[in-house]
Amino acid sequence: MKAAASYDSDQLLDAILKSLDDDKAEEVVKINLRGKSEMGDWMVIGSGRSTRQVSAMAEKLTEKLKNEYGIISKIEGKDIGDWVLIDTGDVIVHLFRPEVREFYQLEKMWTPGAQDDLAMDPTKAP
Questions:
Q1: pTM of structure
Q2: CA 27 to chain centre
Q3: Which ranges constitute the DSSP H helices of 28-122?
Q4: Where does the record place it (predicted)?
Q5: Over 80: is that where the pLDDT of 21 sits?
Q6: Among 3, 6, 38, 70, which is most buried by a count of CB atoms within 10 Å?
Q7: Cα→Cα distances 116→43, 45, 63, 122, Å
């Protein structure tokens, strides 16, 4: 297990992205939050095909972070598996079923130009 101070948020992001790729997460998006929010340096959003896959990806990721980085992540929604939030401190991870992700359109709140799209068409608001 690595010591808590032996990694930076970019290394943590890479480990998270690799874990999600290994678990066949779909449409993975990373959003740089530096200078935009105090909640963390990065946000990662990804989808699983089913509640079972979403929950399993979250479980595997939190175990990997615990074993390899000593990070005890805060996790919400794993038992239901529609939308799982994993807070590592530096990286916030959202895992969705596709229908739930489409409904909330979370990445549009953090992607440049998305607010302009909403201003032109308020029916696109989450």
A1: 0.83
A2: 11
A3: 51-69, 98-104, 106-110, 114-120
A4: Cytoplasm
A5: yes
A6: 70
A7: 21, 21, 39, 10
